[in-house]
Amino acid sequence: MLRISQAMSYFPKRLGHSWFDFVSFNYLRGRRRSKEKTGGQQLVYFGKLLHQKAFVSATDGNLSVRLDDHRILATPTAIGKGMMQVRDMVVVDETGVKLKGKRDVSSEIGMHLTIYKLRPDVGAVVHAHPCTATAFACAGIALDEPLCSELVMTLGSVPLAPYGTTGTAELSESLLPFIPYYNAILMANHGVVAYGKTPCEAYHRMEAVEHFARIVLATRQIGKQMLLDGDQIQKLLEAKHRYGVSPSGAGK
Ligand SMILES: [Zn+2]
Known about the structure:
The protein is α+β, with helices and mostly antiparallel strands. It has eight helices and eight strands, in the order H-H-E-E-E-E-H-E-H-H-E-H-E-E-H-H. It has helices at residues 4-15, 19-52, 109-118, 131-139, 149-154, 169-175, 199-222, 230-243; strands spanning 62-66, 71-74, 90-93, 98-100, 124-128, 160-161, 184-187, 191-196. An eight-stranded mixed sheet has the order 4-3-2-1-5-8-7-6, with helices on both faces. A hairpin with a 3-residue loop joins strand 7 (184-187) and strand 8 (191-196). Zinc ion binds next to loops.
């Protein structure tokens, strides 16, 4: 009778590999699959939140998560963000070439890849069209007024990137000057992109941008704004470092 130890040494030798290679290959494949599954579950969850919050309509918006140095898991094109399943997700490499998945990846994947390239600290990207923030983007107004103490500490200011045609390199190029310094950007006549270490952090930043936009709009409707002064902002930034609040950008 063939013993287990004999079988273990037989098959890998026939394949020209050691048993260790055989086990580690399966181990790595298992780890890859579980990372894809976890990432897919996160994209499904935060896609549903985007839809529930009305940050997207119809098939708008897209999300992605970095799996490793060369692979990104992203939402597909032409699907409602509240209707996605884990199996709908697409794996692409750092240049956007599809590695895995039945569907086609979002046409706005180039913007995600540019952010991952410029910001090694970023692990997830969320793009949506929340109404109030997008209205500011369509009016050509950045959300950079120091109005709310909490937001100065967490989100920082949100710049406005010039218009770029969606689904083209023009869109990514318009974001280039801002990506290293901010964690959320308004895209003129389009929407918002936010990013962070995790899908949760990226989503929270998207939510904070829309919340901030509503406050700015309300103060403009009231007709009065009391901006924080330089001294107050400095104290908030010092408190941010003391409490270890996640920085508003990689460089600022
Ligand atoms: Zn868009």
